[in-house]
Design goal:
The protein has 321 residues and is α+β, with helices and mostly antiparallel strands. The chain is built from 8 helices and 8 strands; from the N terminus they run αββββααβααβββααα.
């Protein structure tokens, strides 16, 4: 079990992850899932840092429709493991444990474990031999020494264990994650460019209200920050040209720098969107208030017209009398 912290990818896998990095930023705040939902039409995502047995990791989850994708990255080595699971697999897995969960509920539990919002769900990361030892203990079999097979797919695979603790029992839901390698610096640079383009588009949207001065000021600050990061990106591109002369440790260092730039851009994009949404909500409230005042004025006008009409009729009757 761990306490939050986490991140990771490989060559072709990294291309998908690069695209997904942007999508994850966009959807990260759409949780929680509706309880009991088995079909989720929109894309949901969450990323969190997690410490497994003293080692820092990054854990990501995305849900699109009936498909759950889970990815774990070793923060130090940048090794990555990733798996995709449809609703049928998840519900069959939970059924085999004797504690069935619907797909939507299982996703809620996983998200709660990542966010540490519930003490009843936690996470652990095991190797194949760790998982076998856990199974043997549960069925009362003594420990067995499995032959070492470092090149075996089983030895490179990891299992993300969702642990559900109830009053007198602990249920383990293992999610198998094949090894997918390390992230590609070229893909990370592409993610940086995509994030910068998206920020530029967001900043280019004209304000519809003259009271958007605060938003414009924040966008100017963001532009200054982007210019500083562009200088850092230029330096990174120079390092990329010399990549063939750099050893493995140099490559890992470059990847970490690029990932820090991506993370910083993600945070700035989130802040900008939050502030933009606040300004929009404020304008909407003002519009609603004006509409209510207009409705009250119209009602008053109708009342006065009726009063004038009645008084006119009374005056006419008085004159005839």
């Amino acid at each position: 079990m761990g306490a939050p912290e986490g991140r990771n990818f490989s060559s072709e896998a990294a291309v998908e992850v690069g695209r997904r990095a942007v999508t994850t930023i966009r959807r990260r705040w759409t949780f929680p899932f509706p309880i009991g939902t088995s079909m989720m039409a929109k894309l949901h995502g969450l990323q969190a840092d997690y410490v497994f047995r003293g080692v820092d990791h990054i854990v990501r989850m995305t849900v699109e429709g009936n498909l759950l994708e889970v990815e774990v990255e070793d923060r130090l080595t940048t090794d990555q493991w990733r798996g995709e699971f449809d609703a049928a697999f998840i519900e069959d897995l939970t059924h085999k444990t004797g504690n069935f969960k619907q797909f939507g509920i299982f996703c809620n539990m996983l998200e709660s474990a990542l966010a540490q919002s519930s003490e009843s769900v936690t996470l652990d990361l095991l190797t194949y031999s760790d998982l076998e030892s856990l199974r043997n203990r549960k069925i009362g079999v003594g420990p067995r020494h499995l032959p070492a097979a470092k090149s075996s797919p089983l030895s490179s695979k990891r299992y993300l264990i969702l642990i559900y603790s109830v009053e007198f029992d602990r249920i383990h839901y293992p999610l198998p994650l094949p090894y997918v390698g390390k992230p590609d610096p070229v893909v990370l640079q592409k993610v940086i460019r995509e994030l910068k383009e998206e920020l530029a588009l967001l900043k280019a949207k004209p304000g519809k209200d003259p009271r958007d001065a605060e938003i414009r000021r924040l966008r100017e600050e963001l532009q200054n920050a982007l210019e500083e990061k562009q200088a850092a990106e230029t330096a990174l591109l120079g390092l990329r040209e010399e990549l063939t002369l750099v050893n493995k440790n140099g490559v890992l260092k470059e990847v970490k720098i690029l990932k820090k730039v991506v993370q910083s851009l993600e945070e700035e994009l989130t802040k900008e969107r939050t502030k933009h949404q606040r300004a929009t909500n404020k304008r909407l409230q003002e519009s609603q208030h004006l509409a209510e005042e207009l409705a009250e004025m119209k009602a008053t006008e109708r009342s006065l017209r009726i009063r004038v009409k009645n008084l006119t009729n009374e005056l006419a009757l008085y004159r005839k009398g």
